[in-house]
Known about the structure:
The structure holds two protein chains of two kinds.
Chain A (H helix, E strand, L loop, with lengths): L4 E3 L2 E2 L7 E6 L6 E8 L3 E9 L2 E5 L6 E5 L5 E5 L8 E8 L9 E2 L3 E3 L1
Parallel strand pairs in A: 2-11
Antiparallel strand pairs in A: 1-3, 3-8, 4-5, 4-9, 5-6, 7-8, 9-10, 9-11
Chain B lengths: L3 E3 L4 E4 L4 E7 L4 E9 L6 E7 L2 E5 L2 E6 L4 E6 L8 E9 L7 E2 L3 E6 L1
Amino acid sequence: KAGVTQTPRYLIKTRGQQVTLSCSPISGHRSVSWYQQTPGQGLQFLFEYFSETQRNKGNFPGRFSGRQFSNSRSEMNVSTLELGDSALYLCASSLGGTAGSEAFFGQGTRLT
Amino acid sequence: QKEVEQDPGPLSVPEGAIVSLNCTYSNSAFQYFMWYRQYSRKGPELLMYTYSSGNKEDGRFTAQVDKSSKYISLFIRDSQPSDSATYLCAMSVASGTYKYIFGTGTRLKVLA
């Protein structure tokens, strides 16, 4: 069974640019969550999508947005990049039917 | 004060030792507790998943949850150099939200 796939693995951008990251969940999983991981703050929740609807959102500015498609694949977009956005961006996939179902992570996209 | 506290380490132990990793938390609404292992430049890998209080064993790993003390532990028996990684605890409430709160991680080094 294929795991969670994130593309691209690495991105280098300059301040002010925009970036789109992609996440393909495990087959059959309908929930996709996004996290930002930095050395100082650890893993911080960005948002979660289930059946194309955002169910939960973390405390990040509106520059961070996401969406989910009918095949459960998800994209995350960051507009007007700032230096502090450099991080490992991780997505997690879960069945999503009940609260707290196991979440499986992809390898992440490292944004510099 | 962070919702989830975890000693960052590093924790160095000799091969074969029993390792104890711990997290404390402040939110009594947490019901789901997870431990992830993360190797350098990789995504977190789910090790253990428990609901509410009690113990769960899987091979060399044992997870313990003490909700009365708001304290969770992961024990690794017969530790191996391949166990050297960062261990992250994570938890969530049981109200339909899929927001996981992570500890900052404990770096473990198992010396051959």
